[in-house]
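Deliverable D2.4 — example input (structure tokens):
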């Protein structure tokens, strides 16, 4: 089954890609690699999941925020590949950043929201290396940000 078909099966419609908020590009292709800039949880033009994990955001909200970041990543990938997600050869790496209190230690569970989405959409091609780190703050006060590297054709 194609990645686009899997998205439809999951009931996910990719949004219009979010424009960069500063002096960078949303994605950059270098040979067979596609680098996606950090994506934050934005839906319908509105910033979602503002706050810190372990303080004002729950683990479940963090997972949902990471999944939304993953959807925004896929939106950028789709834009870079002319709408053809089947040109993805593999998801190489996800970098997950969690705005969390010092006592919060469930960063990997939070970023599973994005990781699991890649597996749901791409199947075995979605397996990737990953980082899940805690940070003191993130842009716009969001709880999660995720970036990605893909191999494409």
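Example output (designed residues):
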């Amino acid at each position: 089954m194609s990645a686009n078909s899997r998205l439809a099966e999951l009931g996910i419609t990719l949004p219009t890609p979010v424009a960069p908020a500063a002096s960078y590009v949303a994605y950059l292709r270098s040979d067979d690699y596609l680098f996606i800039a950090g994506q934050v949880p934005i839906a319908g033009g509105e910033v979602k999941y503002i706050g810190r994990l372990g303080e004002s955001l729950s683990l479940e909200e963090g997972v949902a925020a990471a999944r939304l970041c993953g959807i925004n990543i896929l939106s950028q990938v789709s834009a870079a590949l002319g709408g053809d997600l089947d040109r993805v050869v593999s998801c190489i790496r996800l970098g997950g950043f969690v705005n969390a209190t010092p006592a919060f230690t469930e960063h990997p569970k939070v970023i599973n929201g994005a990781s699991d989405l890649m597996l749901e959409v791409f199947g075995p091609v979605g397996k990737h290396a990953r980082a899940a780190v805690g940070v003191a703050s993130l842009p716009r006060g969001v709880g999660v940000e995720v970036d990605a590297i893909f191999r494409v054709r």
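Residues 3-11+29-152 form a domain with the 60s Ribosomal Protein L30; Chain: A; fold (CATH 3.30.1330.40).
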